[in-house]
Amino acid sequence: MFNVPQERAVPFGCVTPAPIGEQPMMRTGNWREFRPVIDHEQCNLCMNCVVWCPDACWQLSENEEEVVWNSTYCKGCLICVNECSHDALTKAYELDFPDGVVRLEKPF
Amino acid sequence: MAKEMTLSGCAASAQAVKMAKVDVICSYPIRPYTAAMMELAKMVAEGELDAEFIHGEGEHAQLSVVYGASAAGARTFTGSSGVGVTYAMEVYSPISGARLPVQMMIADRALDPPGDFGSEHTDAMSCRDQGWIMGWAESPQEAFDNHLINYRIGEDPRVMLPQFVCQDGYFVSHIPGKVLIPDQAQVDEFLPPYNPGKHVLDPKQPVSHGPQIRPDQGAIMDLQRAEAFLEMPKVIEEAVGDFNRIFGRHYSPFVEEFLTDDAEIVFFIQGGHAATARYAVKHLRERGVKAGLVKLRFVRPFPTTQVAESLAKFKGVGVVETSTSYGGSMRGGNLLVEVRAALYDVPKRPLTTSFMAGLGGDAVTLKDFYWMAEILTNAVKAGRVGKTVYWAGLEQAVA
Amino acid sequence: MAHVQEITVWTRGVVKDKEGRDVANGIAKAADKEGKFTQAFDNYVDLPDRVNVPVRKYARISDDDIEMKYEYENEKPQVVVVVDATLVKGIDVLRGVEKDGVLVVNTNRTPDEILKFIPNQQLLKSIACVDADGIAGESTVDFSGTEGGVDAVGLGSGIAAPLLGAVAKSTGLVKLESLAAVVKNKEGLFKGHETTVIKNLH
Amino acid sequence: MSIPVQTQTFPMLKKLRNIPKEEYYVPGHRTCAGCGPALQYKLVAKAAGPNTIFIGPTGCMYVANASYLCTPYTVPWIHSQITNGGAVASGIEAAYQVRIRKGKWQGELPNVIVMAGDGGSVDIGLQAMSAMLYRGHDALFICYDNEAYANTGIQTSPTTPFGGNTTFTPPGKLIPEGKRLFPKDPPQLVIGGHPAVKYVATASVAYPIDLMNKVRKALNVKGPTFLHIHAPCPKGWKFTESKTVEIARLAVQTGMWNLYEWVDGEYTYQFRPREYKPVGEYLKHQKRFAHLKEEHIAKMQAFVDAKLKTPGVPIKVPVPLPREQQLS
Do B189 and B90 fall within a single domain? Predict the structure, then answer.
């Protein structure tokens, strides 16, 4: 009877399925002005970056040998750089990297 | 075996809620609905009803507790009166928007100021646009029945909406009447266990309840509820049909007519004062006045078609308002607004006016109805109504 | 209905929020001085802003009443101002531009370096780069002008001033003198105007 | 027939390397870069695990996390009004008690956690929070404290410190200090009058193992528990977003925030420095205090000094009454 455009649709009762692993409807990698860059040689796996990232963008790798950065969601707050216990992290200007483009149509 | 008990409206409500096997109840005291919770508290204390009985810290909390409990898969019950009903206002729309079929009993009470414990429908009527089902009972029996009927309608997967099950404070809530209590097996046949479906809060199938939307999606949330109300008449007819069959009753789903066969003037009314109106109609007929009565059973969804079909048959309709709408288009209550709107597309409309009666808990007596009938009769004679609202007991009977 | 010039300003929440608002307000106020009908406002759906989140500010200029004044977004901007250059990696800043658009970017890099990140540059008539950070130093963080409040700090005391200078030079939307009448940091405004590097694309 | 309700028991965490890898508050939310409340949310969710239901009263942790029809919670989550987090949690807990008892749901009682801001817990949410704690629901009420109504654009709340510049307490000629009142004390409000509560603790995002263990201890208690978590807000406190943890640490080091546990009447303290830094060390990073004069900072230092004599216990030295302050 009614014609609801797809982009305006709301699920029944505004109840949505929970995300799995990440929330792809809210990619936040495009928030960054600076990104953290890791020197794996310097890293002693103190885990400060892992525990203190509000966006869970640092994770220990599967084999537990290094920490891995999530460029799709990192907002560039640089808490990790500030808290790194071994100076393994440095900040770098985003435009110096051709990668990590999260070009969205809308900001969300 | 069904048994007959003499119960107040409050006690009858409690019996119905017990037989609906509710899981979570949230109470807060305010007169005159309190006794319903007193009864339920006794049942829980005696082990007759296995439910969580939570002492809410206020009406706002009552509605919040049942909101959470219903989202977590429980059948729920709460209730209130007067300013308690309006204190909980914030939570009504979140409940209907989340499509949680909680049930709330309202035993009406006038709103402050000052403190007035008499019955008036303004408390509930102020909340009529919050996406809840709403209707009144005339007697303890009808109150008992309405609780079961409303759970069935509200929990129907085509509906999934909360319900205000209303009764007049004191008149219905406090004065005992005969109530037929059915067998539990009959209730179980009529009312299946609550199935919250896929949107229940459950760690085994996680969902997010109520994330924010953009302004352009707000209309869609509204449309969802509006569509449920469009579907609802069908569900109500089915539920009332099943109820009549299983319990041997004769309810009309939306509007009940009394002595209307050749009636020229009718009272249009909802709630407890319909009981007195019936006697008034009988006595008016004894005096040769062709009077009748049309009782509204649901004000939300408003049965537009049924009201129009029913009222179009008469010459004069007097809407008995038991609530206020200060400054409204009819200068009285809201019911005449609805009635006139329902009649707008009828080719031959009856004359309509309204009577403010029973405000603040004022009794509405036979004399009051005779006075209303005189105004209606005069109006029919004159072919016009003098004004859209008359205040019962406070004005001379001139058309 | 008279043609409405739409100007979209892309900025980052909190850290450059006021600066972005100042750009939109500066354009509108200056155009107002020139007798135009104007409007400037935050993109409501982006609020509340969060640190670093991409947000939009809008300005509209017309020779007559703006009949679209209650529409949420600028659907077809002709001028786009990017207050933080890194936004070009994250957002299609030219969304809605039909043709002959002007892109103004706060950066110390050259137009060609920025264009590397603009895949739909055929929509542009020109791109203008100005080192607003270098000229004005720190961005002002202040909430007094948010949510419809009245700004208590003053318009254009930070990087908005040189950016507005770049807008005047590259677009012709408003005159530099009109901007000078509304912007606090006039030196920054003029320096921005003077040092803006424009590249015409066709 | 009534089925007994089983609850979960969590082991304590010892090292950062041993904390669970699984995230239940996943990347993809619209909180500020460097958001303290988001950081504590991640840690709380990690500590609580999958059998958890979160209640999110309105505030930043509703609006920023659940923007535009998506959320970062992999466990069930429900929005509540800012007013009623405690009441909605009560209903959920009660529903699970009765559904498990009646055999309608199988499993250990889920962790029911209210994640309320300072407004949603000790201001407009106080009534619902107090009632939940009083009635003895098996639920954890967390007040993540960012010391203001941040979502609406930084307005004062009862936990905004004296001297805080918010958009409702702007410093001006007549009121140079901005906020004139000293803050409410949330854990003391809870401890002071809720006999069912056996565990209350304060925590800070700067001490993550301590924070997660306090979450687990609270969840291991059968009955209502309360955590007060310090969560710096880069937007509202106006500091560089990389300093969220540093600021939180400085709060503990200056005595502006005290870490303690209250277990059935007994206090224990954590990370008490042998020597406290002056409060100025904490204030100087935050532009919300940039307008303060020396006399204001001295007033704040006196408040902290008094508090530190008996951390956790309501402060004994009289705080000037609001009206007296206005007269001065």
Answer: yes
First vs last Cα of chain A: how many Å apart? 30
What is the value of pTM for the model shown? 0.95
CB B63 within 8 A of CB B136: no
Q: Which of C11, C45, C52 is the mutation pick for testing A, counting most A CBs within 10 A? A: C52
- Write the CATH number for B311: 3.40.50.920
> Domain containing C97 — which CATH number?
3.40.920.10
Residues B87 and B235 in one domain: yes
CATH of the domain at A80: 3.30.70.20
Tokens of B367: 């004399």
In a domain, A85, yes or no: yes
Whether A73 is covered by a domain: the verdict is yes
Helices of type H across chain B: 9-19, 34-45, 59-71, 82-87, 89-97, 122-125, 140-154, 184-190, 215-247, 274-286, 304-311, 335-343, 366-382
Judged by DSSP in three states, B309 sits in helix
Note whether A8 contacts B207, CB cutoff 8 Å: no
AA identity, residue A66:
E
Of how many residues is chain B composed?
Answer: 399
Residues from chain C contacting residue B214 (CB–CB below 8 Å): 45
Q: Domain count for chain C, please give it.
A: 1
pLDDT in tens, chain B (399 residues): 789 999 999 999 999 999 999 999 999 999 999 999 999 999 999 999 999 999 999 999 999 999 999 999 999 999 999 999 999 999 999 999 999 999 999 999 999 998 899 999 999 999 999 999 999 999 999 999 999 999 999 999 999 999 999 999 999 999 999 999 999 999 999 999 999 988 999 999 999 999 999 999 999 999 999 999 999 999 999 999 999 999 999 999 999 999 999 999 999 999 999 999 999 999 999 999 999 999 999 999 999 999 999 999 999 999 999 999 999 999 999 999 999 999 999 999 999 999 999 999 999 999 999 999 999 999 999 999 999 999 999 997 664
Give dist(CA C3, CA C14) in Å, integer: 33
- What token pair was written down for C47? 């609020």
Which three-class secondary structure state does DSSP give residue B276?
helix
Residues 6+ apart with CB under 8 A from C165: C130, C176, C179, C188, C189, C190, C191, C192, C193, C194, C196
Angle at C145 (CA atoms; ends A76, C31), nearest 5 degrees: 105
Angle formed at CA C199 by CA C98 and CA C17, multiple of 5 degrees = 65
What ipTM was estimated for this complex? 0.95
On the question of a cis peptide bond just before residue B32, with omega within 30 degrees of 0, the verdict is yes
Where residue A71 falls (left for φ over 0; alpha for ψ -120 to 50; beta otherwise) is alpha
**How far is Cα C145 from Cα C142, in angstroms, rounded to an integer?**
7
Q: What range does the domain containing C120 cover?
A: 4-200
C90 min Cα distance to partner chain A (Å): 4
The class of domain D16-327 in CATH terms is alpha beta
Give residue for tokens 């007269």.
Answer: D327
- How far off is chain A from C91, nearest CA to CA, in Å? 4
| Contact residues, chain B, for A12 at CB < 8 Å | 99, 160, 199, 224
Chain B neighbors of D61, CB-CB under 8 A: none
- Chain C residues touching chain B at CB-CB below 8 Å: 44-45, 72
Output the six-digit token pair for A57.
């963008």
> Alpha-carbon distance B118 to D163, whole Å?
50
Candidates C145, C192, C161; CA nearest to C18 is: C145
Which SS3 state, helix, strand or coil, does residue D182 take?
coil
Domain holding B359, by residue range, is 255-391
Structural domains counted in chain B:
2
User: Is residue B397 in a domain?
Assistant: no
Shared domain for B237 and B327, answered yes or no, is no
Q: Residue B212's closest chain C neighbor by CA?
A: C45
